[in-house]
Amino acid sequence: MKAFHPEINLLFNALVFFTRIPAPQGVDYSAANLNRASRYLPLIGLFIGACAALVLSLAAQLLPLSLAVLLSMLTTILLTGAFHEDGLADSSDGFGGGWDKGQILRIMKDSRIGTYGVVALIMTLAIKYHALSELMYPASILILGHSLSRFAAVCLIYRDSYVREDADAKAKPLANRIDRNGLLIASLPPVLALLLMASLSAWLVLIPVCLITAGCSYYFNKRIGGYTGDCLGTCQQLTELSIYLFFCLPWFI
Q1: Who's near 63: CB < 8 A, 6+ residues apart?
Q2: What is the pTM of this model?
């Protein structure tokens, strides 16, 4: 079977890791490829957001907007396997219940969900639902939200250090670094989404996204000295939520 172009191969590595969508045969899966594949996370977000927007637009023709919004949210959860939501729940349990770095990391690795995780998921999904239900153009904002929020997570990969409970562990972390070229590639999908908004004021959404990303970076470094995969999911969820809330401001509605 003919090998894929290296960049296409990286895209399929990212697709399989970050979503439940299967890739064609012949993809070369490896930790090294996945480390480089994080550059395509925002592009995957663009695709996830487009799917959610399509479901929302079609469902809204037949159903009340509230139900259409729920179906679009369900679509993203099914496509990703609640990948980022799981990270938010684990981080909430870890940082909420842990006192030191080791305890926080051990709690985050626990597959069971605790009170902090449940509350974080319920509140995040509820706020997303109500925010999207209030937006005048929710479809385009869904595309932007899913792409830009994933770029925020990539920025953490670029800026901060990956943390493991055991520094001497032989297992290699996945998606734990990105170079400047990769960061530039990662920035293109959210820039495209912002251009499609055709509104200069829409670019102001970068302010809350940057503030929350910086806040996540500061908090994670202060508590555990860097980030984990669960921390990336938390950053993605919080920045996505901030995007929807930003467009609920009076001058957008």
Answers
A1: 71
A2: 0.93
